[in-house]
């Protein structure tokens, strides 16, 4: 059965370009982004891994560890990393899991046989420090992912975990947010949102980003 939001991310032990990984232990207290790609030495994957490497500081600011996966072996990953570094102007700074026996792919339902019988699709999981799955996205092999969107969702998750708000469509850090409908106590609202709020409708109450001074530190 496929994994759903709120499920515990399955633990595993598998080899990677940086040596064997015990997933939960490797994550520690960090957030995690686990993402699969169809194969090494393919063009779209090369750009995706380059982008991830270049976003290292952005991931670090949010306490996120990234880890990629494909069904290719470690030696292939290591050779391909040289190409990624050369062509994308980066230094790959995260492990790529070598899931030759498809153990992790099966646990995370990353092979979609009607799309490809043996290769992983572009699955991505965001996992929180409690090892719960907080975001799943699946892209086809022909479409590279938008890693700025992944960061945007992590920003939203980290803020909404902390404050009684949710983020509207196309929200970006610093933009107005909505007060969750379950929060009705006006004293608590005043205390939580000293800048006030605008009730567009009783259920749609906009307030400035409670972390608007947030610098990611
Ligand atoms: C790619 O990463 O470029 C790719 C992989 C599989 C199919 C099509 C494109």
Automatic annotation (TrEMBL):
Gene3D superfamilies: Antioxidant, Horf6, Chain A, domain2 (3.30.1020.10), Glutaredoxin (3.40.30.10). The active site is at residue 45. PROSITE patterns: THIOREDOXIN_2 (PS51352). One of its GO terms (cellular component) is cytosol. InterPro entries: AhpC/TSA, Peroxiredoxin_AhpC-typ, Peroxiredoxin_C, PRX_1cys, Thioredoxin-like_sf, Thioredoxin_domain. It is an enzyme of class 1 (oxidoreductase). Its EC number is 1.11.1.15. Keywords: Antioxidant, Oxidoreductase, Peroxidase, Redox-active center. It comes from the Bacteria. One of its GO terms (molecular function) is peroxiredoxin activity. GO terms for biological process: cell redox homeostasis. Residues 3-159 form the Thioredoxin domain. CDD domains: PRX_1cys. PANTHER family: MCG48959-RELATED (PTHR43503), PEROXIREDOXIN-6 (PTHR43503:SF4). Belongs to the peroxiredoxin family. Prx6 subfamily. This is Peroxiredoxin. It comes from Marinobacter orientalis.
């Amino acid at each position: 059965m496929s994994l759903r939001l709120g499920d515990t991310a399955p633990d595993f032990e598998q080899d990677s370009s940086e040596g064997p990984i015990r997933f939960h232990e490797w994550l520690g207290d960090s957030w995690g982004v686990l993402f699969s790609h169809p194969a090494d030495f393919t063009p779209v994957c090369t750009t995706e891994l380059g982008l991830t490497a270049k976003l290292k500081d952005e991931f670090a600011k949010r306490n996120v560890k990234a880890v990629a996966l494909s069904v290719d072996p470690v030696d292939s990953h290591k050779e391909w990393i040289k190409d990624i570094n050369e062509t994308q102007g980066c230094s790959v700074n995260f492990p790529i899991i070598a899931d030759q026996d498809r153990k992790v792919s099966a646990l995370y339902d990353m092979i979609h046989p009607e799309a490809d019988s043996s290769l992983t699709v572009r699955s991505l999981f965001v996992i929180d420090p409690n090892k719960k799955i907080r975001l799943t996205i699946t892209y086809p092999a022909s479409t590279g992912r938008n890693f700025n969107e992944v960061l945007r969702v992590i920003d939203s998750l980290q803020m909404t975990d902390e404050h009684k708000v949710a983020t509207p469509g196309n929200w970006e850090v610093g933009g107005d947010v909505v007060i969750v409908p379950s929060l009705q106590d006006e004293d608590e609202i005043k205390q939580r949102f000293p800048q006030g709020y605008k009730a567009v409708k009783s259920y749609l109450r906009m307030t400035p980003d409670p972390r608007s001074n947030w610098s990611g530190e």
